[in-house]
Request: fold
Amino acid sequence: MVRWFRRTPKQPAHQEEQEETGNRVPVEKVAPEATAPCPDDQDTAREGPKLFQHMRQRLRKTRQKLLGGLDRLILGKKEIDEEILEELEEVLITADMGVSTTRKLIEAIEAKVHRRELTDPDRLLAHLKDEICHLLQVEAAELDVGQYKPFVLMAIGVNGVGKTTTLAKLGHYYKSRGMKVMLVAADTFRAAAVEQLEQWADRLAVDLVKQHSGADPGAVVFDALTAAQARGTDVVLIDTAGRLHTKVNLMEELKKVKRVIAKQMAAAPHEVLLILDATTGQNALSQARLFHQELGVTGLALTKLDGTAKGGIVIGICQELKLPIRFIGLGEALEDLQPFEAERFVAALF
Reply:
């Protein structure tokens, strides 16, 4: 029997919670909730350097990997020659931007050099920054959760990428903007997945729909959408399996869940959000290709960017698959999941 829960604020008795990887990390306190809308460019400027510096600090490993190589590359050089371009290509590949994306960047820089638009090695970084920003501008619809009520987001991804935790942070993000949020525990295959999401629901004081471990995910989703429509929920966040311990193929199971959602609500799911672990580099790109081919991914969230020098994978994935980055994870705190803005990301990276 599927159970629906309305959460009221309370302090969890546990002091630790289990992440998808099996590690246990301390639970940070929930920050006071804000009701202000998502910031625009002017709001970002008014926030001062604090938010930007936070992102810059969390991208430190990738920035050191990238800029360290570039600084050595142009040191003492008077002009941009073939040797500089070859070494630039190597630096970009080692930053995990991928061969295809690196070639696009090199070709764009070469074209500027040939047209004499770029001759000074000291200006190379500025031009590279512009080209990267251009590659991150993917033509896609914005993630407008106010377009539907409820707005249904289906989170997918393999185990270990931080999918359940990211979903909880999304719940915090939307609740802090005055929206009524429901978490749905449709990952009924992973041990303790339901309990983990239940702990998050308690902590965030948001609604939860769950069933027992091993239950049919489609039944959980069906019940959740029925409840969400009846109770005026704004955003429904659906957690799904990342690995099955049965003979059922993972993609087929996820397709079934997606079909259930579509039958229950026209045009849903409104967002199929693929969660990727940035520390896996090119493996994340392979995962993205497979999930997109099978399920029609509409947006990406990259986690653990604070713990890797492979942050260049953001650019590679965005460029090769033409999928928009919706959110990036810069740490363990609830507020460390931030909406992705290409200009701000590139500025922090450089």
Summary: Residues 8-48 have pLDDT under 50 and may be disordered. The radius of gyration is 21 Å. The first helix runs from residue 41 to 46.
